[in-house]
Every structure is written in structure tokens, then in C-alpha cells.
């Protein structure tokens, strides 16, 4: 296990990372990019012909060209075009290596056309002319709309690291109370997943009321560190509260009902646990208890302490 320090932080800078999540590109609409999104390949990914015609070398202008015995199939690359050769390509087809122009023609039998003079770049679209691999296409902090979705798909981006809807973040009041230099012995990635799930749930639930509030608090308690996430929201019925803790049951239209179950399992795997308590005025309190890094030697047992009778 690694040491993970819960520092005194200010919302939204440091804690915002825990609200970030990686989602498939098709589900990123309305979210806000957490990182710069870069093109994963050149766009277009190959040099293509803009017209039907003959791919040639401009350096062969004034010399006799001969038609090659082979033609280019769309989407496939071929050997380099030899000096003095001309090769037929269709619109959108790959321009063979060595060719730097296409002589537009309607008929592949019109061999007179191949003797025409050309300028480099005639009737071709260069590889990477729209976007180069590694180029930023959607900067961090950008709300993903229809235009951004189109860019991400075109650039081959499969997943987006993003935060929740920017509108939710803007109208929610955050209050963070965290004692400095608190550390727990836990797997860093798993701890981030726990916090991410609880913070996202709190943010979404709080926005069911007109004045959404999320309170995050971390403090020591004996040999443990307690992280308390409280949110405003609607008053939960017994059925709502039962659904919260039951796998495969979700109050969200698109939810799977697994988030809390996974977070609880991760907390237990790291020697802690998660408890939930409904707020009488509406909303929920989630309490995560983890073993303090200073409380146990590296190889000690991580059996969670019973906190069922403690009030936080």
C-alpha cells in the first residue's frame, strides 16, 4: 500500500480532480474537459486525391509520362510512384508516395491528360492538413458541445477525461474543511475512485434543490481518518435509502446502481468502510473511515474498526 496525503485544499482546484472521470467520447456531451484533448492521429490520416485523375510528379513536367499498369484502391497504400509514371486514383483515394499532384480527368482511358503540367499540391489533400497527431483539439476547461464531439470523433479520441456538467459546478456552493497533513494507508487509485464516486453523487443529488450545497470534511479520529461528504437534496424515503445501498438499483435514469457498491468494496479492501445517513432536512451524509498511515506498521492487519455507535 502507498501513503496518500489528504492535504488542506480549496475547492475547486485540488478536490476537483476527484470529480473528474474518464468517459467514452459519446457520453461526454455537456461535460467539461479536465485535460487538453489531443489528436491521436493525423487528420486526414493519409494524403488523398480531391478529384478522379492521374497521380503524378510535378518534377516530370515537360517529360513524357507513361501510365502505370496498376491503380490505387481507396484506403490502401502502394509502392512509390516511379519517375515518369502516372497512376489513376479515385476521389478520396490514397495518393501514392512520390506523387505530389493529381491531374483531374473523367476517363481513365484518356492517356493524353497525363502529359499535362501541374503545380505541387494540385487536387490533393495532404496528410495532417486539418490536425497533426498530438495537436490540442479541445483545450482543458472546454464544455463539450456538438462541435467538440465532432472534433473528438474525427481525431480518433475514444475516451475523455472530464468533470461533470459545468452548470452544476457553477451553481453549487462548496464548503471544504480539511485538517492539514492527514494521511491514510491506502491504494492511491482506489482512494481516488472512492472520493470521485461520492463527490459526483453528492454534486448530482444536491442539484435537485434550488440552493445546492456540498460539504467536504476530513479529520482524524483515534487511529483513523474520517472523510465526510454531505450534500443538500430531496428528503429521502426509506425506499430511496434502501435503493442507495442495494446493488443494481439506481435512482438515476442512466445509472447502473453499482457506484456505491464498488466504492464500499474498495473502502473495505483498504481496511475501512463507508456509512450513509439521511439528513432530516434533505440530502445525504456519506462517512468514509480509513486507517491512519501513522497508526499501523506496513504489514499490520487492516481490519476496520466498528464505528457504528460513533456520531460524526
What does this entry look like structurally?
The structure is a single chain. This protein starts with a strand and ends in a 21-residue tail after the last strand. It contains 6 helices and 18 strands. It has helices at residues 16-19, 146-154, 166-171, 188-206, 238-244, 259-269, and strands at 2-6, 21-24, 32-33, 37-38, 48-49, 53-56, 66-67, 85-89, 101-104, 124-125, 136-138, 159-163, 173-178, 182-186, 213-221, 224-231, 273-278, 284-291. With 312 residues, it is an alpha+beta fold. A 5-stranded mixed beta sheet has the order 13-15-16-18-17. A 4-stranded mixed beta sheet has the order 7-8-6-9, with no helix packed on it. It has a 3-stranded antiparallel beta sheet with strand order 2-12-3. The model is unreliable at 1-14, 253-257 and 300-312 (pLDDT under 50).
**Weakly predicted, low-confidence segments:** 1-14, 253-257, 300-312
Largest sheet: 5 strands, mixed
Number of helices: 6
Termini separation: 27 Å
Strand line-up across the major sheet: 13-15-16-18-17
Find the structural class using helix and strand composition: alpha+beta
Overall mean pLDDT stands at 77
Amino acid at each position: 500500500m502507498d501513503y496518500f496525503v489528504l492535504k488542506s485544499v480549496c475547492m475547486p482546484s485540488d478536490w476537483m480532480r476527484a470529480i473528474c472521470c474518464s468517459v467514452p467520447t459519446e457520453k461526454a456531451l455537456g461535460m467539461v474537459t479536465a485535460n487538453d484533448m489531443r489528436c491521436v492521429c493525423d487528420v486526414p490520416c493519409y494524403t488523398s486525391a480531391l478529384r478522379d485523375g492521374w497521380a503524378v510528379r510535378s518534377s516530370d513536367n515537360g517529360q513524357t509520362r507513361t501510365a502505370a499498369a496498376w491503380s490505387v484502391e481507396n484506403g490502401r497504400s502502394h509502392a512509390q510512384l516511379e519517375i515518369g509514371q502516372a497512376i489513376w486514383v479515385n476521389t478520396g483515394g490514397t495518393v501514392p508516395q512520390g506523387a505530389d499532384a493529381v491531374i483531374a480527368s473523367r476517363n481513365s482511358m484518356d492517356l493524353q491528360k497525363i502529359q499535362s503540367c501541374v503545380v505541387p499540391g494540385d487536387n490533393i489533400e495532404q496528410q495532417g492538413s486539418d490536425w497533426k497527431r498530438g495537436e490540442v483539439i479541445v483545450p482543458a476547461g472546454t464544455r463539450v458541445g456538438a462541435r467538440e464531439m465532432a472534433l473528438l470523433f474525427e481525431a480518433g479520441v475514444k475516451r475523455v477525461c472530464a468533470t461533470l456538467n459545468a452548470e452544476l459546478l457553477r451553481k453549487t456552493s462548496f464548503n471544504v474543511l480539511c485538517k492539514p497533513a492527514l494521511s491514510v494507508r491506502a491504494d492511491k487509485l482506489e482512494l481516488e475512485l472512492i472520493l470521485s464516486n461520492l463527490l459526483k453523487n453528492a454534486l448530482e443529488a444536491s442539484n435537485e434543490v434550488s440552493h445546492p450545497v456540498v460539504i467536504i470534511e476530513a479529520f482524524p479520529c483515534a487511529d483513523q481518518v474520517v472523510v465526510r461528504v454531505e450534500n443538500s437534496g430531496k428528503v429521502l424515503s426509506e425506499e430511496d435509502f434502501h435503493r442507495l445501498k442495494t446493488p443494481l438499483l439506481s435512482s438515476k435514469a442512466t445509472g447502473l446502481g453499482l457506484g456505491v457498491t464498488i466504492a464500499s468494496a474498495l473502502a473495505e479492501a483498504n481496511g475501512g468502510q463507508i456509512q450513509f445517513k439521511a439528513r432530516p432536512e434533505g440530502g445525504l451524509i456519506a462517512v468514509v473511515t480509513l486507517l491512519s498511515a501513522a497508526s499501523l506498521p506496513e504489514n499490520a492487519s487492516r481490519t476496520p474498526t466498528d464505528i457504528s455507535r460513533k456520531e460524526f
